[in-house]
């Protein structure tokens, strides 16, 4: 498995609303076209209205690479740039868990 957590901080409330719209357009495409994407969960951060956290779990690195090559992902990546103040990515290595095979 291949996983990451991404923290997005939007520039302001208008940017956060626009970011949420882009996410709402992108996630159905991920569900429909990416068999290697096992989990793509988008979260709001309590008490931090400009932050969003993504948890992404892929079958393997190839599943992640396939996700990154999709047109809907490329559109998301390009569109988000004008909306964000910062992006933090944590690459994860599975130790153990429920529902993960680990």
Structure description:
The chain has 102 residues and is of the alpha+beta class. It has helices spanning 13-33, 61-69, 71-80; strands at residues 2-10, 37-45, 48-58, 84-92. It is built from 3 helices and 4 strands, in the order βαββααβ. A 4-stranded antiparallel sheet has the order 2-3-1-4. Strand 2 and strand 3 form a beta hairpin. It is globular, with a radius of gyration of 14 Å. The protein starts with a strand and ends in a 10-residue tail after the last strand. The model has no long low-confidence stretch (mean pLDDT 96).
- Strand line-up of the largest beta sheet: 2-3-1-4
Biggest sheet details: 4 strands, antiparallel
User: What's the total count of β strands?
Assistant: 4
Q: What spatial form do the alpha-carbon principal axes imply?
A: globular
Distance between the termini: 9 Å
Give the helix tally: 3
The structure class reads alpha+beta
Proportion of beta-strand residues: 35-45%
Spans of at least 5 consecutive residues whose pLDDT stays below 50 are: none
């Amino acid at each position: 498995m291949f996983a990451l957590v991404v923290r997005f901080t939007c520039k302001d409330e208008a940017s956060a609303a626009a970011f949420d719209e882009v996410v709402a357009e992108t996630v159905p495409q991920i569900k429909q076209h990416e068999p290697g994407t096992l989990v793509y969960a988008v979260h709001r951060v309590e008490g931090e209205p400009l932050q969003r956290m993504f948890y992404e779990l892929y079958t393997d690195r190839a599943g992640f690479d396939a996700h990154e090559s999709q047109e809907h992902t490329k559109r998301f990546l390009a569109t988000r740039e004008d909306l964000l103040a910062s992006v933090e990515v944590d690459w994860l290595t599975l130790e153990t868990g429920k529902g993960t095979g680990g």
